[in-house]
Amino acid sequence: MAALRDKAALVRESLQKSQTITESMVSILGSFDHRLSSLETAMRPTQIRTHSIRRAHENIDKTLKAAEAILGRFDLTRKAEAKILRGPHEDLESYLDAIDQLRSNLQYFTTHKCFKRTSGIITHANNLLTKAISKLEDEFRNLLTNYSKVVEPDRLFDGLPDSLRPSATSPGKRNDSKKDSDNQKNSENAVYTPPTLIPPRVLPLLHNLAQQMVQAGHQQQLFRIYRDTRASVLEQSLRKLGVERLSKDDVQKMQWEVLEAKIGNWIHYMRIAVKLLFAGEKKICDQILAGIDSLRDQCYAEITANSVSVLLSFGEAIAKSKRSPEKLFVLLDMYEIMRELQSEIDYLFGTKSCTDMRESAQSLTKRLAQTAQETFGDFEEAVAKDATKTAVLDGTVHPLTSYVINYVKFLFDYKTTLEQLFQEFEESDTEAQLKTLTTRIMEALQTNLDGKSKQYKDPALTQLFLMNNMHYIVRSVRRSEAKDLLGDDWVQIHRRIVQQHANQYKRISWAKVLQCVTIQGAAPAGGGGILGGDSGSGISRAMVKDRPMAESGKNPCKYIKYKPEDLERMLSEFFEGKTCVEQKR
To answer: Do 144 and 125 form a contact (C-beta atoms < 8 A)?
Structure first.
């Protein structure tokens, strides 16, 4: 216990020493804190002066940089002004760069109104920019006008495929032996080369000028300049080609030959206008006004509107004019070209701004189809009611028959077109529709021929007329595409009809001949010779003269005009078509 007490006393003594040391350290540290606080108070003014000096240096640097920027802008503005005052003629690209720089400077001074003269500078820059854009308008107009030339017809013809280039004859003249559009039906695969309406090197310049005018808010000025210039050139190019505005009354007054030629030309003009001129116009419009979509579409629509109207109005005038059978094939030609061009028209006039023109073209296509279909009915009725008094004295083929057969042959040259036309109105078997149409026309022709055959007083000529005409019909059908459509049964049935008329003709016509050369029923009542001068003979002298019954009488040469060999020769020549004069020779 004594030892523990001694140790406890030592611990207590140690703790007391530690406490004394701690208190001494706290006292020392407190003294340092007081001194540091006094030092900080003494240093504060110096720190403040140093910070102020540093901020002053920073402000000076910023001011110098701002001054340099402003001076740089002034310098750029002076250089831009010098270029603008010289005008765009010397160096258009440099002029456009100067406008861009002036516009950038104007934006800078508008957002940095940091000194008194800022408003004056902005006013001066705006005035200068207005002058610059005004000069740009003049330059745009001059460039566009100088490089927009009327396209000569020969240049347009050079852009057509070889098979569609006009020959020495009229481009619209139909070849009656075979439809000219055999090559046209393959024209969708043909290569068309639109003419260069504006040199390619000028297009980027015009585009940049247009962009500058739009940025300056001069969209309407740009629109008017571009529309008026290009529309005028396009219309002049079409007029030089031969396009003219014709009304329904103008069309109605024309002779058929003149009208047919104009329709052929119109088909040619439509192809040139759509595939070459309108396509070329859209190409340069897209390049010059690229990035200005609404203005571009409206410009193209108004440039082409009048030209499209002139072309389509002629088609409308034809479609609405008085119907006649001879117009059917030109109506089909017109319908065919509208169908051929439909995809191009939908592409070229596919925007909202071109809706009216696109719908007008579609309407014309429908109208042509409707008029052609109505003309079918007119033709069938005209064939059935044909009352021409054209006399066919020898019973040969009537002009109506050859006309109708040629008409039907032409129809089959348009077979594909007709099938498309039928589909305009109903979805059905187009081949069945064509067969029905052809059958009705043939039936109308047969009915009319039956009526015409009754004009003959000689029953033999009636049968000969029907035989010849039906034979011509059957032979023509067998040699044409109509055979595949009408079928072998139709051909066989009508061949039997031809044979029936042939049998009737032989029976009726040769009965008279047989009556002349036979003596049946001419036996003498009281016996005796045929001639011999027997007064009791039952045969009259007139009957003897009418029939070759004089060989056994007196002076037979007096009564016999033809010998048997003469009759044999004449009969062998009967169907060779020799005239009486030739026979006498």
So the answer is: no
> Domains, the chain, ranges and CATH?
1-142 (no CATH), 148-164+196-372 (1.20.1280.170), 392-517 (no CATH)
- Name which of 87, 228, 233, 209 is nearest 143 in CA terms: 209
Task: Please report which confidence band the pLDDT of residue 583 belongs to, taking 50, 70 and 90 as the band edges.
Answer: very low
**Nearest CA among 280, 278, 274 for reference residue 340:** 274
297, 226 Cβ separation under 8 angstroms:
no
Residue keyed to tokens 């995809």: 343
Give the count of alpha carbons within 13 A of 385, CB side only.
Answer: 6
Instruction: Work out the pLDDT band at 518, boundaries 50, 70, 90.
Output: low
Token pair of 83 as six digits: 């270029």
- DSSP per-residue codes, 389-421: ----TT----HHHHHHHHHHHHHHHTHHHHHHH
Place of tokens 């001194």: 35
Sequence-distant (≥ 6) Cβ neighbours of residue 545 within 8 angstroms: 559
429 SS3 class? coil
Question: First and final CA of the chain: distance in angstroms?
Answer: 190
Q: If DSSP codes are grouped into helix, strand and coil, which group holds residue 372?
A: helix
Phi–psi pair at 253, nearest 5 degrees: -85, -10
pLDDT per residue over 3-35, tens digit each? 777 777 787 788 788 778 887 777 777 776 676
pLDDT tens figures, 371-392 = 999 998 888 888 888 887 766 7
523 three-state secondary structure: coil
Please count the CA atoms within 13 angstroms of the CA of 392 that sit on its side-chain side. Answer: 19
